[in-house]
Amino acid sequence: MEGAVSTGRVMTRRRWMALCFALGSSCFLVGPFPGYASLVGDSADAITFFVGSILFTIGGALQSWLAWPDRHSPGEGRAAWWAAIVQSAGTLFFNVTTYQAMHTAVTSTEYDKLVWRPDWRGSICFLISGAIAYRASPRSAWHGWLPVREGEGWWQPAVNLLGCVFFGISAVAGYVVPSTGSVLDLAAANWNTSLGAACFLACALDTLHTDKVSKMPVRRRLRELEHEIETDLRRAT
């Protein structure tokens, strides 16, 4: 354990959160690829999406737990809380639709097209969550729209929002026309799902590596730094 402390690889709540998001994102990254579905079969592919949604929900719960102490703080604290809660609601919608897809894939022999597409309700929640987090992040360039390029993970809110946009596009592209049962654009639905998952995976891996979340309130991070310094001083004496 001491070796883990010295290398800075202790599994904190942030790292557990990031690990869940990373594993969940990996499921949504590989799940839409036709080669993966052909390799493992429709049932295993649907299970991959369901497992990914559960991992997203666990990660969202940990993120909400981290944001809870500062939920009443103005600015970043309140924004982090609402972003986490709305995102967690979106993951619950994904739980339902991925379970339904898994059940259909396991019980139906004709289920051979689109295993899963982002649920429109979950996608809306993700878009709102991503917009809240991005709006609360430091921005200055180009009339206040572009993020400030300083500090570790400065790019995370923008990439996270981009991932939410990709998931939203996938939900639209995967819309099933009721009268015909056809899919508007199967390839677009699959590719945008993978691209969105890749964005989420990049953010999760960065947090897993640095143990820092760009959406964390500044005041809370300062308190944690003070605690870390005090702990190091006690160890040194």
Molecular structure report:
- The protein has 237 residues and is an all-alpha fold.
- It is built from ten helices and two strands; from the N terminus they run ααααααβαβααα.
- Helix 2 runs antiparallel to helix 4 (42-67), helix 5 (76-107) runs antiparallel to helix 6 and helix 8 (156-173) runs antiparallel to helix 9 (186-210).
- The longest helix is centred in the middle third of the chain and has 32 residues, at 76-107.
- The two termini are 19 Å apart.
- Residues 1-8 have low confidence and may be disordered.
Q: Find the structural class using helix and strand composition.
A: mainly alpha
**Helicity level:** over 70%
Shape verdict: globular
Describe the oligomeric state of these chains in a short phrase: single chain
Quantity of strands, as a count:
2
Biggest sheet statistics: none
Q: Estimate the strand proportion.
A: under 5%
Order of helices and strands: HHHHHHEHEHHH
Radius of gyration: 19 Å
Uncertain runs are: 1-8
Number of helices: 10
Mean pLDDT: 80
Give the N-terminus to C-terminus distance in angstroms.
Answer: 19 Å
